[in-house]
């Protein structure tokens, strides 16, 4: 990434604001010695702004950057001295969003240990498989998951919240030095179709990844940011990394509740909110507070924005919505800002600076604008492969996202869905997401999912699952006629099924396998 662009962006966002020469020197020295790992980002923040509030969580805990680093170092020393954890080991982290989660990940990277971020929605059986496949040495978990970890092997050491606090409190004095190897953060894929795979996240090599995002999403140094997206997910983790780099104050709640979130945004004077799309949808289902939060950024990622949601949200909370399209494997691919979302509410936007995006056919040739192709992405933060040794198809340095999409004449990207979600009905290619976006615009519909199911006559057919707002009704034939009016006949769902709510995983993605159980 070219230096003038980096300097201009960092200046614009306040990163290069002059400060105490002693603290600036300490900050730069921390980055020189510890690099851009989570440990390095935390150390540079503590060196530059030791007394600034780093974390506020709903339990009333409020830690400065000095306190947060001190607790992470204490935990690291105790894990090393008391539990024998050392560089190259892997520890599992089964925690919701709170200060202990940040301390645990930071402690692992201080030691050169790999931290496996475990999805809180995994079953006990899936958790056992993850522990075995990832060869976990230690599992740090919240108290609420005590029953779920009972069946794990006896030799796997477990730390609940009390034990973790005892490690922090009972740490022996000593120094920590940069490890010989960087501790990797391993994010598990969303797991909507079975046991998730571990994806190794690279350590940033400098300001480039931060600059790519904050150039398009206007975050600033010392912002106050609520991270509602789960930190075990790529988007929540990215939010944490950006917040540490920007020395932000981070507000955390263990569980998302729309009313509590709006209250926390106001009470903590938050400038930004990181969320997944279903959370934004839930915020629209409760009355907006008076006064409304003074947000300048609401950044979402993790799944597609439902059709019509973006302009409705911005009509209430202002033109502050930013939609990042990416994945665990490619990190980011494109970003849509408020102007893009006003113009085209379902767009994924444009690739940020330093990112290459191409739409290719099955033979690797670029497809023309308007034609559907496979989405390939290249940037500084492509994943390093799955922990199983598997990887993804690459072409000319670009990684296959597994998604299909198209570009319009203005260069805006539209994602049609996973390549394996597309169905062939009567010889026609059909994308369920197109039908979902249309049905989501019906005023009676709270949420919708459309999936393909086997059909003896057409090979496959579409089934629409609708959750309606309380007190609303909608005739199935009226739904079909509505789709027939706007889309081709092969896009009309043969089945219209009403459900109380859609089954989702912990990151808000709809669990299609649960919907298919309707068909036995």
From TrEMBL:
Domain of life from the UniProt record: Bacteria
Presence of the UniProt keyword Kinase in the record: no
Ligase as UniProt keyword: yes
Domain AMP-binding enzyme C-terminal: 434-509
Pfam family, one: AMP-binding
Keywords in alphabetical order: Ligase
MF terms (GO), sorted A to Z: medium-chain fatty acid-CoA ligase activity
InterPro entries named among the record's database cross-references: AMP-bd_C (IPR025110), AMP-bd_C_sf (IPR045851), AMP-binding_CS (IPR020845), AMP-dep_synth/lig_dom (IPR000873), ANL_N_sf (IPR042099)
Residues covered by the AMP-dependent synthetase/ligase domain: 43-386
A GO BP entry: fatty acid metabolic process
Family as reported in the entry's similarity comment: Belongs to the ATP-dependent AMP-binding enzyme family.
Protein name in UniProt: Acyl-CoA synthetase (AMP-forming)/AMP-acid ligase II
């Amino acid at each position: 990434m070219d230096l003038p662009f980096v300097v201009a962006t960092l200046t614009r966002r306040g990163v290069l604001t002059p400060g105490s020469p002693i603290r600036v020197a300490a900050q730069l020295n921390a980055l020189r010695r510890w690099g851009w790992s989570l440990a390095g980002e935390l150390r540079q923040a503590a060196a530059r702004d030791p007394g600034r509030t780093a974390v506020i969580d709903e339990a009333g805990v409020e830690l400065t950057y000095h306190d947060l680093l001190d607790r992470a170092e204490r935990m690291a020393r105790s894990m090393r001295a008391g539990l024998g954890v050392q560089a190259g080991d892997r520890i599992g982290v089964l925690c919701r969003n709170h200060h202990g989660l940040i301390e645990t990940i930071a402690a692992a990277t201080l030691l050169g240990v790999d931290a496996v971020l475990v999805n809180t929605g995994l079953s006990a059986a899936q958790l056992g498989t993850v522990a075995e496949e990832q060869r976990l040495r230690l599992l740090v978990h919240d108290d609420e998951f005590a029953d779920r970890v009972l069946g794990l092997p006896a030799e796997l050491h477990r730390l609940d919240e009390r034990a973790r606090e005892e490690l922090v409190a009972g740490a022996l004095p000593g120094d920590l030095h940069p490890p010989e190897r960087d501790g990797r953060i391993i994010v598990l894929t969303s797991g909507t179709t079975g046991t998730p795979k571990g994806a190794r996240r690279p350590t940033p090599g400098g300001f480039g990844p931060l600059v790519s995002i904050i150039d398009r999403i206007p975050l600033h140094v010392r912002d106050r940011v609520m991270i509602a997206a789960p930190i075990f997910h790529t988007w929540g983790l990215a939010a944490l990394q950006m917040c540490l780099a920007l020395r932000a104050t981070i507000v955390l709640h263990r569980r998302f509740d729309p009313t509590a979130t709006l209250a926390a945004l106001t009470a903590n004077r938050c400038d930004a909110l990181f969320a997944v799309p279903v959370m934004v949808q839930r915020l629209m289902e409760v009355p907006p507070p008076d006064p409304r939060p003074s947000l300048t950024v609401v950044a979402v990622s993790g799944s597609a924005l439902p059709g019509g949601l973006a302009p409705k949200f911005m009509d209430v909370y202002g033109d502050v919505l930013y939609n990042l399209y990416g994945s665990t494997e490619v990190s980011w691919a494109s970003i849509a800002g408020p102007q893009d979302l006003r113009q085209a509410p379902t767009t994924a936007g444009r690739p940020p600076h330093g990112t290459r995006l191409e739409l290719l056919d099955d033979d690797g040739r670029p497809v023309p604008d308007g034609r559907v192709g496979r989405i390939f992405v290249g940037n500084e933060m492509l994943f390093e492969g799955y922990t199983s040794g598997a990887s993804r198809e690459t072409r000319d340095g670009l990684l296959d996202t597994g998604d299909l999409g198209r570009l319009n004449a203005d260069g805006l990207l539209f994602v049609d869905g996973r390549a394996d979600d597309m169905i062939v009905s009567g010889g026609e290619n059909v994308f369920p997401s197109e039908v979902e976006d249309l049905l989501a615009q019906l005023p009676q519909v709270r949420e919708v999912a459309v999936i393909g199911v086997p059909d003896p006559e057409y090979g496959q057919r579409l089934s629409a699952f609708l959750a309606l707002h309380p007190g609303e009704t909608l005739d199935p034939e009226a739904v079909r006629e509505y789709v027939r009016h706007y889309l081709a006949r092969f896009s009309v769902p043969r089945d219209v099924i009403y459900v109380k709510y859609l089954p989702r995983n912990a990151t808000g993605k709809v669990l299609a396998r649960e919907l298919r159980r309707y068909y036995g």
